[in-house]
Amino acid sequence: MRSKDGTISIGLLLLCGLLLLCLSAVTGCAVGPNYKPVQPHVPSTWSGPVSSTPAGLTPSAAANLVDWWVNFNDPSLTSLVNRAVKSNLDVNLAEARIREARAARGVAAAGLGPTIDAAGSFVRSRSPGASGASLAGGRRVASVYQSGLDAGWDLDVFGGVRRAVEAADADLQAAVEDRRDICVALAAEVAVNYIDLRSYQRRIANAQENLKAQEQTAELTRKRFNVGFVSALDVANADALVATTAAEIPLLEASARQVIYSLGILLGREPKALMQELSSPSPTPVAAPTVPTGVPSDLIRRRPDIRRAEAQIHAATARIGVATADLFPKFNITGSFGFQAGTLGSLFDWVSRFWSLGPSVSWRVFDNKGILSNIELQKAFREEAFITYQKTVLNALQEVENALIASAKEQDRLKSLADAVTANQKAVRLATQLYIQGETDFLNVLQAQRSLYSTEDALAQSTGALSTDLVSLYRALGGGWKNVPPQMEKKSQ
Predict the structure, then answer these.
(1) CA gap 125, 143 in Å, rounded
(2) What pLDDT score does 489 carry?
(3) So where are the chain's domains?
(4) Other CB atoms closer than 10 Å to residue 108's CB: what's the count?
(5) Which residues contact residue 181 at a Cβ distance below 8 angstroms, ignoring those fewer than 6 apart?
(6) pTM for this one?
(7) Calpha distance 216→210 (Å, rounded)
(8) What whole-number distance in Å separates Cα of residue 293 and Cα of residue 125?
(9) What does CATH list as the number for 31-122+143-492?
(10) Distance of alpha carbon 172 from alpha carbon 165, whole angstroms
């Protein structure tokens, strides 16, 4: 059928043209390079000592990396890490950035669809009459009521908008990986601070025990001096050793309290919030030295900082396509439909309708090389992102190797220090007995007590260092996050 004014036929023709343009937008190519996953070169095995090197991380081994802090069998440590992930301000900041990236992705995706604006207006106007007409009879006053819809659709024929959405998706993934990387670092930092605290408390206890023994020796020396068995020099040496040991305790106590303050901040609370909870001494947490290291290629899939760097390469690659699309024409369809009348009562009469529909094209045919320069700029950004990725991979490999060798050598050191403590304890007993019997001078007692305190303090530090090295290894392997959808990640922590 055809109406008298031909509107139906014109509408059908325009609708067909609209469908053809939409089809071209759907099937059109996306200019710019397609992203290809990076395949970095990594060694097949670790050079450092490992307990076992499987072909890759098994599901059980990977799960052991997720909540690695439970391997230390310390409920306080587990509680601190779990609370820190929920309340740490850096984690909260990273979550806000994820929401920003998700919203930015929505903004970019909105460019793929049409826009529709509703509008309405009322205008009352007066126009002058004809020349020579009287004021009353010549003037013309009119009212115009208008209501309608305006629509527009920028057709993404060359894929510029689709590349922008692709870049936004990559930015969102990078934001998710950034949060994961913060969680990895946060768990390790909480664990290291907690281990340092327990190590300081052990060293304080050692110092107090040695101080008590040294005070008893000093009292014994003073009694022997009073009866003329020893000289005043022995008394002075004994008192000096007591004072030296006593002087170290305040420094250790200050360091312990500062660590508690640090843990409070890591949990997003005031520094003194954990004083009551953590002031009581507790043993230094120790985990089994066996860690599921897997092979170096596992790092590429597991470490969030590497995954983030790869997502940034993807985003930079997509933005080359966004810039390249500016070289080509842009097509859009605009249309409007509404009603216009001189009275409000007749505004929505069918005869008062108006409409328009039609395509348009625009093309920046001359831009003084601005578009080409922008393309080169985006290529440089991609090259920068790729170099950053390479550095991230190398740093990750180095961190694992450093942690492996440090852990292995600290185990050897710990064993030797334990043997030294046992030997020094025996030396103190023998030297004290011989001194009481008058068979040796006080210098041997003094030296034995100094050696015992020194080795016990070193053993306490080594115990903490071994646990810290294991924490560094877990962190270097990317342990501390679950591979779950980003929207579920916060609930699963």
Answers:
(1) 6
(2) 55
(3) 31-122+143-492
(4) 20
(5) 303, 304, 305, 308
(6) 0.85
(7) 10
(8) 82
(9) 1.20.1600.10
(10) 10
Token pair listed for 279: 């002031």
Find out whether 112 and 162 touch, Cβ atoms under 8 Å. Answer: yes
Nearest 5°: phi and psi at 441?
-90, 170
Please tell me the predicted confidence (pLDDT) of residue 15: 53
Place of tokens 């190590």: 199
pLDDT of residue 270: 95
Asked whether the CA dihedral 37, 38, 43, 49 is positive or negative, the reply is negative
With beta carbons less than 8 A apart as the criterion, state whether 308 and 97 touch. no
As a whole number of angstroms, the distance between CA 245 and CA 256 comes to 17
Q: Which residues of 360-383 are buried (b: 16+ CB within 10 A; e: fewer)?
A: eeeeeeeeeeebeebbeebbebbe
Q: Residue 19: count other Cβ atoms within 10 Å of its Cβ.
A: 10
Other Cβ atoms within 10 Å of 117 Cβ, number: 10
The sheet carrying 330-341 orders its strands as 115-127, 140-155, 330-341, 353-362
- Cα dihedral: 213, 217, 220, 221 (round 10): -160
Beta-bridge partner residues of 148: 119, 338
- Could you count the other beta carbons within 10 Å of the beta carbon of residue 314? 22
- Which residues in the chain show pLDDT less than 70? 1-28, 51-63, 129-139, 483-493
Record the tokens describing residue 69, joined without a space.
């802090």
What span, in angstroms and rounded, lies between the C-alpha atoms of 344 and 144?
Answer: 9
Give the C-alpha separation, 318 to 326, whole Å: 14
Contact present, 407 and 400 (Cβ < 8 Å): no
Q: Please give the structure tokens belonging to residue 286.
A: 């120790």
The upper half-sphere exposure of residue 55, i.e. CA atoms within 13 Å in the direction of its Cβ, equals 0
Judged on CB neighbours under 10 Å (0-12, 13-18, 19+), 104 is middle
Helix axes 160-226, 442-476, angle to 10 degrees: 170
State the pLDDT at residue 347: 79
Q: Please say whether the beta carbons of 218 and 235 come within 8 A.
A: yes
Integer Cα distance of 160 and 231 in angstroms: 93
